Amino acid sequence: MTELSKFGLRVFFDDATQELTFGEGVVCGGGSSKHLQKMKGLLYRDSAAENCDELCYVFCHDIYREEDRHLFEKRQYANGITVLMPGTMGGECRKNSGHYHGYVPGHICTFPEVYEVLTGEAVFLLQESRNFDHADEELKVETLRAVFLKAGEKIIVPPFCGHCAINVGEGPMAFGNLAAPSPLLYAPIQQRHGLGVYVLNIQGRIVFVYNSHYKDLPQLTIVQAHENPALGITFGKSVYESFVSSPERFNFLDEPEQYQEEIEHMLG
Ligand SMILES: O=P(O)(O)OC[C@H]1O[C@H](O)[C@H](O)[C@@H](O)[C@@H]1O
């Protein structure tokens, strides 16, 4: 049993049953899981997904202390945890499906999302594109970035960035997400068999390989994640604690327009 203490609530990952469990007073709105077959069409080597039913990840949503429920419900923020299992899928590190956020009416940029690593070692891929919702056009990728994060570290996925989480460590990798509701667009990534790079583990080394289904990809850059206490992003304090103590710091989640530059400055 691993306690995910970085989350700021009593949450555990049971390695034996591969389930998330919750301490007294912590509520969870439900869960789901994804097996390898469902990753077909997204992998470096798709044959790895054939006839293989191994578990890739589990996801639980709407996790909070009962007394904090009103704070999340008022803003309709989703607060979840995903656990990516260890191991590779045909040499590729375990990852989730990846998606873009679609536009929310009344907004000129798409909504960001906060990710927080709870245990293990992660890479988050951020693939910026403005024409992600034009299915008939070649996807124009403006930037392609990878961020390595350890437990306690956090990022804000900037507007317009398709994103995918990858487990690059040896054990399970768990991460929390906090976001305002917006459409989730999987198709732009599915149509191209994944994001612009695959993350492989070759004899213990992490290797990035460009995805040949894309034309004219920019060069991948490895960026660092920086804190921004004004936006509630501090590596020594959980997102949960930051949010319940100062919900207004997270206004950028559903009013991103005036925060775009500040969010960009957190990656560099
Ligand atoms: O990867 P999916 O199948 O979308 O399912 C699970 C996902 O759901 C949420 O939307 C989170 O933002 C993701 O980080 C999480 O991994």
From TrEMBL:
What GO cellular component is one of the record's annotations?
cytoplasm
List the pathway annotation: Carbohydrate degradation; glycolysis; D-glyceraldehyde 3-phosphate and glycerone phosphate from D-glucose: step 2/4
Q: In the record, what terms sit under GO molecular function?
A: glucose-6-phosphate isomerase activity
Assigned EC number? 5.3.1.9
**Keyword annotations from UniProtKB, A to Z:** Gluconeogenesis, Glycolysis, Isomerase
Catalytic EC class: isomerase
Q: Which reaction does it catalyse?
A: alpha-D-glucose 6-phosphate = beta-D-fructose 6-phosphate
What Pfam families does the database record attribute to this sequence?
GPI
Q: Which CDD domains does UniProt cross-reference here? A: cupin_PGI
GO BP: any one term = gluconeogenesis
- Give a yes or no for keyword Isomerase in this entry: yes
Please report the stretch or stretches of sequence annotated as the Glucose-6-phosphate isomerase prokaryote domain. Answer: 39-208
Q: Signal sequence span per UniProt?
A: none
UniProt-recorded name of the protein: glucose-6-phosphate isomerase
